[in-house]
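Re: the pair you flagged

First of the two:
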Amino acid sequence: MAECAGHGAVRDHGEAVLRGGRDLVVIAIGALADAELHARLEAAARAGGAKLVLPPGAVGGIDALGAARLSGLEEVTYLGRKPPRAWKGTQAETLLDLDALTEPTAFYEGTAREAARDYPQNANVAATVALAAGGFDTVRVKLVADPGIGRNVHEVAVRSGCADFTIRLEGRPSPANPKTSLTAGYSVARELLNRASATVI
């Protein structure tokens, strides 16, 4: 089963799905910043013989980050830049006049856990990066409203024991919801198609 309905759906229905023996593909990964909820979902998955599946969503390089984690991570940062309209309806509106911006403006710097909690519709990528890196409280996040761009830009920088790398994606916003990138939906589709494929990459 695939969740595409937001953090509330993960909280309200995730355990029952997993305990019932069905794998659950979650796109609202920011919900897992709630450590207690994450623990309950993992317990339900074990009890039901199911898996909690977290696709990469709008960001790339999660496979490389997961591999680098095994070699020892020295630093992981995530920079999220989106047009001002993507931040409407969020806490950013209380910090900035989004309609009056003339240059890129950072309005949040902190941990991935706080970003996922305070910006649940915008910071699922921060949560994905944090889970791949093994630490919501160690991944540093910066969020920026940028009137000079038309896409959602995600940058992940990693220093590790096996490699240093930077991943940058410029995602086309969903016409229905500018807070999210089209890549997120295709990521879920890819995960579901992999389940029916003889070869998985």
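Second of the two:
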Amino acid sequence: MMNIITSLNNKGYGIKKTENNQELIKKIKQELLVSPKVFSNAAFSVEKEYPIYLENDNKLYVPKCYGIEKFGFPLDDKLSFGVDCPLLEFNGKLRDVQQEPINAFIDNVNKKKKLGGIISVPCGFGKTIMAIYVACYFKKKTLFISHKDFLNEQFINSIKMFVPEARIGKIKQNKVDVENKDIVIATLQSLAIRDYDPAIFNEFGLVIIDECHHIASEVFSRAFRKMNIRITLGLSATLNRKDGLRKVFEWYLGKSVYKIKNNCEDCDMIVNLHKYYVHDLDYSYVKMMYNGTPNIVSMVNNICNFKPRTQFIINLLKEVLKKEPERKILILSERKNQLKDLEEFIKNDEIASYGYYVGGMKMSDLDISATKQIILATYQMSSEGLNIPTLNTVILASPIGDIQQSVGRILREKKNERKYVPLCIDIYDDFSVFKFKGNKRIKYYKSNGYKINNYIDYDLIEERDEDEERDPNVKCQFIDDDE
């Protein structure tokens, strides 16, 4: 077997170049030259390649966890252990179900010497408090990274609650406040685009990346080619990446260390599935691209702009509030203009108080919106960081396929504390590619054993309890992208 000389330092996992391993080096570089797969309007294409490595004349530097997984723990370990932070004392208590993933992560770092991993748990499981506990366990200077300012603000508020003595710093744009800090909050964009003094990262012993699936992109992955921190913890409710680059963030952070056991007692939900179709060119015209594939973007625009369909959604909303007037409702769309149209109906008909949860809003404005009975939100904002435990109803106003995180937003209340059973109102657009998206959602509902009530427009055609199709040993299932 070839003798490979490996090392670990702030540049990454190093593999010494020799005359005998030139073919191996070439093979590794080929593997770490990645390109995202892009599906645009049902057409498949491959974007330009980009490297996930660094090199000089003497060494090839690869992502830390890739190197450890492939070649074992390095022979020469010079990577900083980070500054000790005794003020990191956890002032809280974890639930037993939260402790299990944390124990798996700690075991992966300490006993297995993997130095990292990903904790992937459903929305509402408490990723933030778990991350703070991990920081307090290792008591090392910690870097927390996310791609959204409001996620960083949420994390800061949680630190103040659970680690009141912690000294909090910040890295954002030109601001570098890291000296004598225990936890430093950084934006992923700044780390990727700007060149900070590499020495500032040597003091960190732990890095936590929220919504870690984002770091696989060409731009965001640059951040991790500029720094290498000893212990890496990735957080995400989903490991899905449609471009096939899940492997990239696993190379940097490590693989998922814990698969959630499907024993969630609070995850029962009613789904009202409304099949909707109108023979109107403004709504259901199947537009095609030059290559003969459906123009999905344009068709979604038509769906969201079709006023009779918007009125249909408003009528369903009114009916829900007529029967159960205190429900707290999340309305989701891919298009802000559809949310604006819905707002007009809600305002003119004086249905209930409402607020927005969309990109670009200040944290203070998001907090105000969270107090309203109806929240108009984009799927993107709801999938990352929307934390309103009192939500119990979601309306899927525009057609999507992947709904795990959207549905998770209404499953946060404990069963013995809630007033209403969680309710999902699903508008199934019964034509073209949207049938596929709708069937994908139905598959997800069935896999979780949710009760599905089938409607054609307003008319109930079948009340269906999925108990027969549900594994009696499974209380709640979370679909991973490998399945």
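The first strand starts at residue 6 and ends at 9.

-B.
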